[in-house]
Structure formats: C-alpha cells, structure tokens
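Sample 3 of the quickstart, ligand 2-acetamido-2-deoxy-beta-D-glucopyranose:
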Amino acid sequence: MASRVAMIWVSCLLLLAAACQGAGAAPRLRVGHYKRRCPSAEYIVKAVVGKALYQNPGLGAGIIRMAFHDCFVQGCDASVLLDPTVANPRPEKLSPPNFPSLRGFEVIDAAKAALEGYCPGVVSCADVIAFAARDSASFLSSYRINYDIPSGRLDGRVSLESEALRFLPPPFANLSQLVNGFKAKNMNEDDLVVLSGAHSIGVSHCSSFTDRLPPNPSNMNAALSALLQTKCPLAPNFTNDPTVVQDIVTPDQMDNQYYKNLRKRNVLFRSDAELLASSLTSRKVLQNALFPEVWERKFARAMVKMSAIEIKTAANGEIRKNCRVVNK
Ligand code: HEM
Ligand SMILES: *[C@@H]1O[C@H](CO)[C@@H](O)[C@H](O)[C@H]1NC(C)=O
Ligand SMILES: *[C@@H]1O[C@H](CO)[C@@H](O)[C@H](O)[C@H]1NC(C)=O
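Result:
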C-alpha cells in the first residue's frame, strides 16, 4: 500500500497526469486541451452553435444559463444533461429551477454527435457546455465578448434534483442569500453582479416573478409592472405560463443594458433588484452601467472562473459517449 502511494507520487512528479488523477487530483484545465487529440473540437462546437443560434438566438441564452446551472451543482461536469433513469428518476434536469425552463439541450447533443464523428470518446460533455456558452456569448454580443476557455473537464455520474434546489438561488432570493449562494461556490460579489448581466438576454416564464406583481408589494418600475400584468394575465394560475423578455430595451443583445434597466428598477426578479440593496453591489451596478467594455471583459473573466468550479477527477469522472447517460 505504502509503495503504491509512493509510486503515485513518483508518477505525479514525472507529470504522468493519469496517475495523478488516480490519486484524486482534479485535472488541470488548459486552453487548447484538445489541440492534439481533436484539433477541430472547438471549431466544431462553434459551427453547430452558430447554426442553431442563427435559427433561434434564444437557445444561446438557454446555453449560457445551462453553464451556470451545471457548474453550481456538482461542479462543471454536465450533470445537468443527464436524463432520468429507473435507477435515478429525479436528476437535476427535472428540478424546478431547470424544468421546464432550461433549453438548448438539443444543441449540446448535436455538437457532441458531430464531435463523436470526428474524434470518438475524446471531448467531454462538460467541455462542450463550456465551449458552447462561450460561443453563445460571443454571437449574442456581436463578438464583443470573446474569451479563451480552458478545457479538460470530466463528466460526472451523479445528478440529483435535491442538489439543484439546494445550490441554485431562486429568483425571490435576497442579497445575502445570493451572496452566500455564490460564496459557497467560491464566487464573490463582483462575480454575482457581473454574471447577473446575462439577464440582458433571453426570457422568463411569468411564474418566476409573480411574487413581484400585484397584489404582492414590490419596488418594480410601475410601467414595467403594468406591461407585465397585461402579458401575464393568468397569474397566479399557471396552467398557461407565458414567457416575456428579460431586457425590455435590447432583448436579443448581450450588453450592459441590464444594468441601466436595473437602476430604473426595470428588471423582473427580486434577485436582480436586490443588487441595489448594498452600497458595494450598487456601486458595481453603476460601473457596469457606465462602462460597457469593462463589463464585457469582467463577464468573460467571471465565466472562465465559474467554469472551473469543482472539476471532477479520474476517480469520479469520465468522458461520456452520450451526454444524456452515464457510460456503461
Ligand atoms: C444570481 C442568481 C440568479 C437567479 C436567481 C436567476 C434566475 C433566473 C430565472 C428565474 C430565470 C427565468 C427562468 C424562466 O422562468 O424561464 C433566468 C433566466 C436566465 N438566466 Fe438567470 N439567474 C441567476 C443568475 C444567472 C447567471 C449567473 C447566469 C449566467 C451567467 C444567468 C443566465 C440566465 C439567462 C441567459 C436566462 C434566460 C434563459 C432563456 O432565455 O432560456 N442567470 N434566471
Ligand atoms: C434574507 O432572507 C433570509 C431567509 O429568508 C433571512 O433569514 C434574512 O434575514 C434575509 N436578509 C435580509 C437582509 O433581508
Ligand atoms: C386555470 O386556468 C384554466 C384555463 O387556462 C382553467 O381551466 C382552470 O379552471 C383555472 N384554474 C384555477 C385554479 O383557476
């Protein structure tokens, strides 16, 4: 036993990555991880994402949100993609934060299928999500948000509805709940404010913000509230749960408009409005509202940081063949 441990150490010193992973260390993520074994990997993902978003830009919003929901639950390991099975009937995918609102799964499937055609068994689903989110941000920002994303993630085998509920902050969260939820994943107030700017694209179901419509009290901008009441007529009866755009000014552009809207209380969720509840976060909101390029750069950096949360090791990870099921 002792000699086995010693051997693993020696192997680590010799930089035999697989042996180090056997010892339980997470793989080191690096830009261009697939350069040798699948040189076109990132290009293939970008092509599939580009085609899908050309037809339906909303899928890009779904994929960026998917990266967040993946990384905050079991780390960035594609656990959000796993379908229900007899053995695991309630995966993350079926939890209220994800079902039925999370979208873009078919785009990930299409990218993975293309990758399996070129280099079978090489590219992890977790990396596909990270690449696809990066490409979505690039397309939806008219290429103003651009970043290299380190890769080499492994896919997990655990996916539980209960953990999605525990780790994904709800839209009715207050500021301290949001800050604590981010802290639990090593993300700080700046990351919280900067990443919330993703709410400058995409849509929300009415049921996600009825807590801020009459008869409930809220500080939502009165004109926005009036508009939403016409679009969400069945509240609180959700048999019919329409969607509305999150950014009423530039709904399809990933930009810093979110922060300008927020300062006028033209935002849907309490979790958005609460970013004005402390002087620290409201100062950050103002900076992002004033300096679009600063926000774009910070958003890229925060996405890279988020995409490194709790990476799986060879002991608890694998490269899935099909993103929806764990390997046999
Ligand atoms: C800070 C805590 C957050 C809360 C409470 C929150 C909550 C929500 C909710 C309730 C929706 C609407 C879901 C629906 O009803 O259809 C939504 C949509 C969205 N969120 Fe967040 N979110 C948060 C942070 C983030 C982060 C960090 C990102 C990405 C970096 C993100 C990206 C998105 C996107 C892009 C959409 C639109 C999705 C679509 O159109 O399909 N959110 N969020
Ligand atoms: C935020 O919500 C939590 C849970 O409901 C509560 O304990 C806490 O006091 C709230 N914080 C503020 C500042 O309102
Ligand atoms: C909800 O709305 C549907 C029609 O969309 C109606 O059939 C149903 O009775 C309503 N339920 C409640 C509890 O109001």
